[in-house]
Amino acid sequence: MANTRWLPLQDRDAHDQRRRFGRVAKDSRLAGAAPSALLSGLPPPPPPHLLFFLLLLSARSQGSQFLVCNSRDNDTLNASSNPPETRVVALQLGKLGLEGAVGWKALLGLDELKVLNLSQNSLGGGVSPELFRLRQLEVLDLSSNRLHGPIPDAFDGLRKLRWFSGRSNRFNGSLPASLSFCSMLTSLDLGKNFLTGRIGWLNFTTLPRLRTLRLDSNGFVGRIPRALSSRKELETLNLAKNQLRGRVPWSFKNLQALSSLSLASNTLSNVSQALKALSQCRNLTVLVLSANFFGETLSEDRIAGFKSLKALVIANCRLSGSVPSWVRRCAELRLLDLSSNRLGVAIPQWLGDLVHLFYVDLSNNSFVEVIPEALASLISLRSPNVSSTDNSAIEFPFHSRHDRSTEVQYMRFFLIPPTLDLSCNHMNGPILKGFGKLMGLTVLNLSNNNFSGSIPEELSGMLRLESLDLSHNNLSGKIPPSLDNLTFLSEFSVAYNHLEGLVPQSRQFLTFSCLSYEGNPGLYGGPLQSCPALWPGSTDAMEERFRITFMPLPYGLGVVIGFVPTVVCGSYCAYRRRRKKERRD
What we know:
Its main location: membrane. The protein is mainly beta and 585 residues long.
């Protein structure tokens, strides 16, 4: 590596390339990119395609002097000033919009290549076995392309491979069994492909250094292999969105380094055993078990672990029972999502004791009684700068719908919008005035319940609020003019209540559509002046229009983390709306 040089090929401007070409940096990798036409399968451009480019690099790796052609203006740049002992150790060709099939054979001369990055292009075709003759290769990134076909079972020659990603392609077939020979492997990511077969065909006992395994969004079947529990250094495991069945192995309790686990969207069973085993993983920070354990009960089994847990997501499971009491001992919990289950009785008061909790989604359940006062006392939501002190990364991206057309992905806790979502339950009583003290709350969704009384003026204290949904309740009185103080408010609905009086005449309340106010015959003014009749019984089309518009939760993470669908107020919400409409008619 002492004589490794840097060829500055990333800038596509010919003159800038010429200016930077002489700047060679010792002990650097070949960084940057081949020109956009360095791939076979494209129309012939002025410069050479990838085959010619790699042949030149091959000559360079053997100590020859050669010329590199610029892709923009066909200028020739003299590379002979670099010493003949220069060696190519890395090709960084990611994010260039490159298309076509790769000339894999041209790689054969790069005997000292350690890093090959072709990620985030539009490369097609299959992967040739010639690639696996690069015996020194340590990092191989083929992610986010259009590569297809089976992955060649030829990894037995890549004994130094430490990092391999083929994520987001169109690979099919089974896991290459020869990956078991890569004893130096620390990270394997083949998520978002069309791979099938059993995960257990890969011998994990020969991969002692494995820390990251992502096989999500494929078609793997069978059971979770017990051999995974022997990988003591495993930190991140994502097997979501497959067709795995059976139980979470009890031996998973031995994964003491495990920090992030997603098994969402499979057909796993026995939620009690899963939680008992995983609670003993003392470093577990993010746990996603959504869309499994269908029809089971979330029991009150005594669980003393989860000391490090920051995010717990068990959504879309149709679980019965209640919020388990062991959650109160998760002192580090920031995010709790138990949405789209059949959990009932009252929401426990002790949720207010979780001092770091800033995201609570209990929507689409069967909770009854009033809102516990403790939810208006969540310490982490009383500051305008909620969660800003937690800059830790999230291995599984959290997805949130910022509006009705855009979905946003979050990779750090402090970026997730602070949320309280109790929508689509059977709760009653008044809306707590204490919510006004939650200055850091971004999303408040209390829709589709039986809340009554007036809208508290104190809600104007939620200075960071961006989304407020109080629709489909039994609220009465006026819309408080003080809500004008919510200057960040971009989504608002009080539809289908018993409100009356003048719609606030200033700021953002004049920008909300008629759909935000429909179903309240006593309301007038503002945007309602130019709206057609929107009251219950007007037309079925109007009701359907509202249902389609408000079906997605505006910010709810729902069944989070990129591997599970975002929770929406689905058929149950639609049923509740229809039932209320019929009752009022």
